[in-house]
Amino acid sequence: MEFNYSQKVKNLQARLKGFMEEHIYPSEAQIQQDIDQGGPFSYSMKIEDLKQKARAEGLWNLFLPKSHGGTLTNLEYAPLCEIMGGVTWAPEVFNCSAPDTGNMEVLVRYGTDEQKKQWLEPLLDGKIRSCFAMTEPGVASSDATNIQASIKRDGNEYVINGRKWFSSGAPDPRCKLFIFMGKTDQDNPDRHKQQSMILVPLESKGVTVIRPLPVFGFDALDRVSEVKFENVRVPVSNILLGEGRGFEIAQGRLGPGRVHHCMRLIGLAERSLESMCRRTMKRVAFGKPISEQTVTLERIAESRILIEQARLLVLKAAYMMDTVGNKVAKAEIAMIKVAAPNMACRVIDWAIQAHGGAGVINDFGLARAYANARMLRIADGPDEVHRNQIGRLELKKYL
Ligand SMILES: Cc1cc2nc3c(=O)[nH]c(=O)nc-3n(C[C@H](O)[C@H](O)[C@H](O)COP(=O)(O)OP(=O)(O)OC[C@H]3O[C@@H](n4cnc5c(N)ncnc54)[C@H](O)[C@@H]3O)c2cc1C
Description:
Layout: H1 7-24, H2 28-38, H3 45-56, H4 74-85, H5 90-93, H6 100-110, H7 113-124, E1 129-133, E2 150-154, E3 157-164, E4 175-183, E5 195-201, E6 207-212, E7 225-235, H8 246-282, E8 284-285, E9 288-289, H9 294-323, H10 330-354, H11 366-375, H12 383-396
Parallel strand pairs: 1-4
Antiparallel strand pairs: 2-3, 3-7, 4-5, 6-7, 8-9
Helix pairs in contact: 1-4, 4-8, 4-9, 6-7, 6-8, 8-9, 8-10, 9-10, 10-11, 10-12
Bound molecules: flavin-adenine dinucleotide.
Flavin-adenine dinucleotide binds near residues 134, 135, 140, 380 and 381.
């Protein structure tokens, strides 16, 4: 494995850092305030303006893998995604934010030409946003075979019923599409063939966004919401890949989506560590800078070690995805999905502690950063489920 980034990646890193310094960091606090005040049913026009600038500079859709029409491999994208991830709202500026990137990859991989024209093109253009609706309030959704929503064929249409929650992005007025998971064949003896995925326009009759769900009290963090689907009718051509193929798509979708989250978290942990260093170097307590209190120095050192470890594992997972495919890379993807959020929680928690009271208010963004990292120990599969998978793969070696 080559540890040096290619010249192409170094150039993109420099351009992206330049963009962050010129356009993102100076407006970081202001835009965050707009997002918080606007709430989940709103969006920032300033982000829309920045999107035009990023696109004009060619810093657009960098997430799209080379194998599927993009210009970068996963390995090349990782250090760039990390830079964007340093500010929680920044990935959207580059059209590289969740859940759109995962949804776009689904459409690229599994969409028909017609589906791509209708939904993928406006998503790649950053004109609309999208939502992934799998999790349900009524069942333990970390086991996706439990999903109960129904997708029933009726002539040339499918009729959809069910209740979803934690559907990220649904209240955003720009969100126009759900990728919806439900059961087309409840009685199939193979529980992994019961589910399908289908495209549901948000404006369909019978779709109701019931309520936004604040995450750790942050109204607009991830814009998660509860949504009701009541006798929603869509044409049969909206099915993705075919009936009973929902799990197959979920595997394809969650691989890159998970790794992108981890790449962003490394950027967030880096910025939290930077903030911890800067703040503790200038605050003096009991006769010396807080940075020189042994416990702080230890935590700074340990944070650096943890970040470097996580970065290497992210790069390895990305390298495996590029070289042997997402399926064979499943252990690495699962490992990083456990390692990165836990690392980020630890580093951000130490940064909060080092800031004293200032760590838990909004001035330094650390409380939001922590909420972001903590929720990623659950979203896209809880730690325990990934550890179970890693454990089983380990045991399999000795069968
Ligand atoms: C901020 C946020 C954003 C999200 N965005 C989306 C989205 O856009 N679309 C979407 O569909 N979903 C989304 N989710 C939902 C997320 O994927 C689910 O919350 C997750 O899969 C867990 O499902 P559950 O909440 O039903 O927990 P449950 O399945 O009820 O599990 C509860 C707990 O049980 C434990 N557990 C479960 N299985 C095992 C096991 N095998 N061994 C040991 N312990 C176990 C774990 O600790 C787990 O946290 C989001 C969640 C959050 C928090």
